[in-house]
Specification:
This protein is mainly beta and 332 residues long. The chain has strands spanning 7-10, 13-15, 21-23, 28-31, 34-36, 52-54, 66-69, 72-74, 81-83, 86-93, 96-98, 105-107, 112-119, 122-126, 137-151, 154-158, 167-182, 185-189, 197-205, 209-213, 216-218, 232-239, 251-256, 259-264, 268-272, 277-281, 284-288, 295-306, 309-313, 323-331.
Length: 332
């Protein structure tokens, strides 16, 4: 596709034991497709195939005007939507993602974006192939984004059988400039019994600005579901360390002194570590048998914490803690 041209892949029905759509051009619109994986055990591969992949094309410059919208992706063995190369602008909107072996939307390797919007996607039953995985897993993994909006999405039933995972999160974000997470519903994270860390949102700093507002974050979703005690935290903002556990889609982010490092499977990147600010407002937070506060926040300079409603449920009497926040200034 020549520079300045557009490519539209739309309204197809794809049944494949391998990948669905692989593309790497600017002006790309992938819309209205139905991509179905295979239920057959004979189709298991060493590298699970992904549904929609944005990867390297003929040009090395970041891709512009990428749209992925109104697609239905079911029974994908790998990631439903996989971004692995630099993008200038990308919008992922109103997709329905069900029964994936790995994540719903995952950035790794050389992925980056100047502007990324993830809006109104419905993602359910994710990470079904991670039951023996010890590495950390996230339904949405976002890295190297300058301006990122995650708005009005539903993420439910994440890694329900992954009892060995070191961490399971609804959303994991690292090396982000400005992050806005608003109006999302994230619930049913992790198995009923887990020794690893469970959470709805995990954001590694340094990050210039974080806004988390009007979200509904719940460990179980269904009050009838019985779970054992676990280190659940609805919102976790903090610094990574060199000793953090590896991730299913490798992305390791930590700061040493005034420099931060991001390590992926294909690159090492460093930049100045500038502490930023966070606003956590008007969220509905609920924990069940949680060993941690509902909110953990550190590594930032300024924090606004207001209008949040927290609820912790325990099978036996125990004192609940809403938040543990460390910042230079705190407005609550």
């Amino acid at each position: 596709v020549l520079g300045g041209a557009a490519l539209r892949i739309a309204d197809n029905v794809i049944h494949s034991a391998g990948g669905g759509i692989l593309a790497g051009v600017s002006g790309l619109c992938i819309a209205g497709n139905r991509i179905n994986g295979s239920d057959s055990a004979e189709d298991e591969r060493k590298e699970p195939a992904d549904g929609i992949v944005i990867d390297d094309g003929l040009f090395v410059a970041p891709l512009v005007d990428i749209e992925i919208r109104h697609n239905q992706l079911r029974r994908i063995a790998g990631n439903a939507i996989h971004l692995s190369r630099p993008l200038q602008s990308c919008r992922i909107d109103a997709n329905r993602i069900h029964d994936t072996g790995l994540g719903a939307i995952v950035m790794d390797r050389d992925a980056s974006a100047a502007s990324l919007t993830i809006h109104a996607n419905h993602c359910e039953r994710l990470g079904l192939a991670t039951e023996r995985e010890k590495a950390a897993f996230a339904a949405l993994q976002l890295i190297r984004v300058q301006r990122c909006d995650v708005i009005d999405n539903t993420i439910a039933t994440v890694a329900p059988e992954s009892t060995a995972a070191s961490a399971i999160d609804g959303l994991f974000a690292a090396a982000i400039g400005q992050l806005r997470v608003r109006g999302n519903r994230i619930h049913a994270i992790g198995p009923e019994r887990s020794g690893g860390e469970l959470g709805a949102l995990r954001v590694l700093v340094p990050c210039e600005r974080i806004v988390i507002a009007d979200n509904h974050l719940d460990r179980v979703g269904d009050l009838a579901r019985k779970v054992a005690s676990a280190p659940w935290c609805a919102i976790r903002i903090g610094t990574g360390t060199p000793g953090d556990a590896m991730r299913v889609a490798p992305a390791h982010y930590f700061a040493t002194g005034e420099v931060s490092f991001l390590l992926t499977a294909s690159a090492v990147e460093s930049k100045a570590a500038r502490p930023g600010e966070a606003a956590i407002q008007d969220n509905q937070l609920r924990g069940h048998e949680s060993l941690l506060p509902l909110v953990l926040c550190n590594g930032i300079t300024h924090c606004l914490f207001a209008g949040n409603h927290g609820e912790s449920r325990f099978s036996r009497a125990k004192e609940a803690q809403v938040g543990e926040i460390a910042a230079r200034t705190l407005n609550a």
